[in-house]
UniProtKB/TrEMBL annotation:
Transmembrane segments: 12-31, 52-75, 95-115, 122-139, 159-180, 337-355, 426-448
Family in the record: Belongs to the inorganic phosphate transporter (PiT) (TC 2.A.20) family. Pit subfamily.
Main location, first listed in the record: membrane
Keyword Phosphoprotein: no
GO cellular component entries: plasma membrane
Species of the source: Neoasaia chiangmaiensis
Name of the molecule in the record: Phosphate transporter
Length: 449
């Protein structure tokens, strides 16, 4: 697959398949992650399922549109530059197939058993696997050829956020119980019985906040993946940002300013590639296709990230590297509005089709007693705050893990007890997702390449 010509029939068919796979993956993301946003409002009969899903979809769309693209490209930058934009101009088909196939398969597997697994975990594991597979293909040192600083940054956010969700949701529940004296908040819902109007309004508000924050974070992840695919399909149109006209003279200036920073440190496997890209980009008269310019920009960005993460670099050097990277990114990191709308639509439709299994798990499977409105509201308010703050700082977190850990925290705070069997299933999915997706994606990428 590495030898597909950029505009050949085989290349276009493969990329069309990848585009379909990324839409299906985001559709499956709706089974898992978005279903957590509507679980409480549906379980308590505050809204009819279809109304809840449509409303959640609209809030997802708003979150995707207003949430920026920092998370989208935080994930994209986990990939080595030669995988992201192959130097020979060929489409990155093996990467896309390995990424979408692995993440989608694990998502569907866990959904089938009603386990609230994280689509974020699936995606990140597959991206790490591809980076490792690429190192084996080129016989590179894993310690220097995989951007571990970026990977640890992402994994720290994934690990810490559920713990924060557990403790903060439990604490908020205790505060609510101490301050608000309303029995309806602490009584599990009865089938087909509408809750107290005040409780209903509260739960609709928390559903809205989680849906919006989910769009601002998880919705961005599919944006980055969709962009990778359409750039492969139509590189002349989408390789460089159409709304930010490429100024080759300006790019040359940034490239030449980057050379002293990148050249002085040897602890970086892609250094020769980055320096070659600086030489090409530093000559504005050098003819180059949009894909080639994009590839050179990403090689330089990778070198600048290595400087920022190098303990030997001075504070001024790290500051200069970050400033130059910020000047380069607008040329290659962007997302048209139609891509954001497509992401939100896939999320919403997936939720509408597959929400029931996850709603049942959250409402009745995590605790020994059924979920009460106060517990649902506390876990969703905390979840919305954590997810939104992560989205605007460019850190990908898991809606699934934050909400489920929040529900568990409120169960402990209420003395309801935890269903250890279900908790063990969720924990096993959490533990095995990364090893499984890393191994499968690395293998698939290596074989296809």
């Amino acid at each position: 697959m590495l030898h597909f010509a950029p505009s050949s029939t085989g290349s276009l068919i493969a990329l069309g398949l990848c585009f379909l796979l990324v839409c299906i993956f985001e559709f499956a993301n709706g089974f898992h992650d978005t279903a957590n946003a509507v679980a409480t409002v549906i379980y308590t009969n505050s809204l009819k399922p279809r109304v809840a899903v449509v409303w959640s979809g609209l809030m997802n769309l708003l979150g995707v549109i207003l949430g920026g693209i920092a998370v989208a490209y935080a994930l994209v930058e986990l990939l080595p530059p030669d995988v992201l934009t192959p130097p020979n101009g060929n489409p990155a088909v093996p990467m896309l197939v390995a990424l979408f196939g692995t993440a989608l398969a694990w998502n569907l597997f866990t959904w089938w058993f009603g386990i609230p697994n994280s689509s974020s975990h699936c995606t990140i594991g597959a991206l790490i696997g591809i980076a490792i597979g690429d190192s084996f293909i080129h016989a590179r040192d894993l310690g220097h050829s995989v951007d571990w600083s970026q990977i640890w940054k992402v994994l720290r956010a994934l690990a810490i956020s559920p713990l924060l969700g557990f403790f903060l949701a439990g604490l908020l529940y205790l505060v609510i119980r101490a301050v608000v004296r309303m029995p309806a908040l602490y009584t599990p819902p009865k089938p087909d019985e509408a809750p107290n109007p005040i409780v209903r309004a509260l739960l609709i508000l928390t559903c809205t906040s989680v849906s919006f924050s989910h769009g601002s974070n998880d919705g961005q992840k599919s944006i980055g993946l969709i962009m990778l695919t359409i750039i492969g399909l139509m590189p002349a149109t989408f390789a460089m940002n159409p709304a930010h006209p490429t100024d080759r003279a300006h790019l040359a200036q940034i490239a030449l300013s980057s050379r002293p920073l990148i050249a002085q440190y040897d602890r970086y496997s892609f250094k020769p590639d980055a320096l070659a890209s600086i030489d090409r980009l530093g000559t504005p008269s050098n003819p180059a296709t949009p894909s080639e310019v994009r590839g050179d920009v990403y090689e330089i960005l990778s070198g600048l990230r290595a400087v920022s993460a190098n303990p030997a670099a001075s504070g001024q050097e790290k500051h200069d590297a970050a400033r130059l990277a910020a000047d380069l990114r607008p040329d290659v990191e962007y997302a048209p509005y139609w891509v954001r709308v497509l992401s939100a639509l896939c999320l919403g439709i997936g939720t509408m089709v597959g929400y029931r299994r996850i709603v049942h798990t959250l409402g009745e499977g995590i605790g020994k007693q059924h979920l009460t409105p106060a517990q649902g509201a506390a876990s969703e308010l905390v979840g919305a705050g954590l997810i939104a703050s992560a989205g605007y700082t460019g850190l990908p977190v898991s809606t699934t893990h934050i909400i489920t850990s929040g529900v568990a925290g409120t169960m402990v705070a209420a003395g309801s007890g935890i269903n250890m069997k279900m908790l063990a299933k969720i924990a096993l999915a959490w533990v095995f997702t990364l090893p499984v997706t890393i191994t499968v994606a690395a293998t698939v990428f290596y074989v296809l390449s």
